[in-house]
Each structure stands twice: as structure tokens, then as C-alpha cells.
Fold this protein.
Amino acid sequence: MYTGVLTLVIEKDQDIIREYVEGNREAGANAFVRKYRNFVFSAALRYLRYFDDADDASQEVFIKALKNVHKFRGESSMETWLYRITMNVCSNYTRRKKARNMFSSTNNIERDYGDFPDSGLTPEQRFENKEFEDSFMEILSKLPEKQRETFALRYFDDLSYEDISKMLGTSVGGLKANYFQAVKKLAEFLKNSE
Amino acid sequence: MKENNKNIDPGREKMEQMLADYAFDKLDYNGKQVFENALDKYSDLRKQAEEIRILFKDVRPENFQRRFSEKTRNLSVRVNERMTKENQSFYRFGKLTKYLIPAAGLAIVIFFFIINGMLPDFFTKTGDIADELTITENEIFTGITSSEARSIFDGEVNEENVIELTENTIKADKYLNMDLLAELTPKLLETAYNEYFDEMILDDILNDIESLEYVQLATQYDYYEQLENLEEEEFEYILKELENADFNS
């Protein structure tokens, strides 16, 4: 069954949920994943640092979310709900991976942020952008968790402090302070890399 | 509103908290007014805000989003595929749990009852097992005639009749090994005697000894109590009697 057009049409969370629960399951699932894939994937990537791991974890997050989406009452935003699931899945994923690595000889310490796919720019621009963005992600990953997450959720995902506060369990005032500190540190890095 | 905002000084801490949002143009109208009006007092923050704006001009969220989008282009397909696979395996497992596991459980319970000979009545009342039990029962008692059996209760029973009746009963039981019984009989008798001696005779003797000890103690206690309760006259009388008594004879 072709579900592409329908997927593009459904935008509102409640419509997506209704479609998934009562209508065309596949179309509902597609619409849901398409709407939140970047948000979930980027959060998983910040936590796990590897693209393949983030990809696996994102799939798991969406499967869990879709299985329980009928329970979502809209008391928090969908992002808040998905973020909690993502952190939970990533935490379990890390534990499983650590256990696997105990019996594995390979030791992947280096992150693979450089694995971003091509974006349609000229080769030179692509290289420069890629290198810059990789470096930025690298330095972002070195920030304390609260500062990193506050910056990413506010700057990249454009979420309100109220939503971020629910996600991270920190007061709005604390988040603003974290955001300021993160921006100052990243600005320092950007100044030095010029 | 603008006039009011001119007089508000949020303080340095609040100004710092607003700085990044101001630099990235994410403050709402009122917030922006408050921040800009207060900047005169915090000139270093104005400079910082400008610097941040310039440094972050290449850090474009849309660039990162685009790259994430490219990476997650087929995520919905992969999610649907995985969900389909999981549903299929769940369906298979569901069938397994629905039919196979209860059947296996029932088989184990029946096997347990058979092994322990604890089949409920409704299993034994009908069918092959019940028939077999009836046949065996008839075979055992074929050696005893009804007149012989009745003679036990009719009163004219002598020792020979009882022995004959017992022998017939034993012969009728095809499961009883007569040779084995003959071999075991002396040992069984010895064991039975020993047990009887231990449990009945020896116990009785020990009980008797214990009783005698108790009687002796009780008697001594009685004498002592009587002496304690003697009247003065009675005591004098006893002493006189003792003086007259001849212990040497």
C-alpha cells in the first residue's frame, strides 16, 4: 500500500495517533517517524556518539513509542515524551554495548561524526562544512551533559525552556544559566578555531 | 509597555541568562525590550552578545537538521520492517502460548497423577484401567469359597479351618511369590518378635521400675509428712515405745 501522500498530509500529533491506532497503521507510523526522526536521532547521537548506534536506538525508540502511543494523553509535549523514551533506550543500549564489548577485542573510542552523508554542496564547501560541523559536534559532546542537552534542545531543536525543563528535570532558571555557560564555552572554541 | 520596560533592570544574573537568546534572536518582544534597555548598564554584555552572534553565524541549525534528515531518510521504512517482524514473531509465540504450553502442562499433570497412582475417580471408573482392576480383584478371591468365608463368622472355626483358608487365599494371589514368602517368614518372625519385645515387654519393665521408684519416694515422703504432723502426745508415745523396743534381738 502506498502511504507517501497520506504521510505528508498528516501533521498534527492527534491525527497521527488516530491514524495509527484506528486507521492505516503503516501510514500513521510513517507520519510519526518522519515528524520526529531528526529530534530522536540527534538526541540518540548526542548520547551514543555513533551513527549506527544512534540509528539502531532511534528505531527502537519509535517501536516503543508506537506500541504505547495510544497511552499518550498529551499531558506533556510529544518531544518530552519521546525524549524520555530516547534516554531510556540509549541508557539500556549503552549497558548492552558495554557488556558486549567486555567480550570483544575491538575498542571503538573514536566517534564517527565524520560519517555525515553528502548534502549537495560543492566538494570544497562540503568538505569545509563537514569538517566544521564535525568539530562542533565533537566539542559539544565534551560539554557537561546538562549544558550539552540544554544547548542542543534550545539551539538545534528550538524547544521552549518549559519543555526542556520537563525533559531534563531542571528549573527554567537553571537551564538558562546552563545555556549561557554552554554558549560561552562553545564561543571560546569557535574563537580559537578561526 | 515600552515606557515600563525602560525602567526595569533584571540584574546581571538575569541579563546573562537572557544573553544567548538575545544573541540568537530568540527573545520575545518584551524580553528583547527589557534586555536592550538594560544593556546601557552592562556594556560588556552588549559586546559579548555581538561576539556570540558573529561566532555562531556558521553554526546553522538547519545545516545540522539537513544532515540528520539525510541520515534518517529511511528510518520510517526500517521501523515498519522491524515492527512487522516483531509482530510476526509475537504471533507465532502467541500461538505457542495459546495451544502448546497448556497442552504440555496438562500432559505433565496427567503423567504426575499416573506415576503417583493418584488418578481421580472419574479416570478409573470407566475405561481399560478400571476393567483391569476388576479382573485382578476377581482372580485373587477365586480361591476362597463363600462357605469358607462365612465359616469364619459362624462361630465353628477351628485352627485347621483358618490355616486352610489362609493357604487358599495366598495361593489365589498370583502376584505373591510363595518361595520368597517361605524364605522371608523366619526373618519376618524374628523382626516381629524383636519389635514386640522392644515395644511392649521392655517398655513395660521400664515402666514398672519407674513406678516402683516413684512409690518408694512417695512412701518416704508420707513417713516424713506424718512425723512433721505428729501431736506432742503421739510423739512422746512413740519415743516410749522406742525405748522399750529391743533392736538387738
Summary: Chain A has a mean pLDDT of 84.
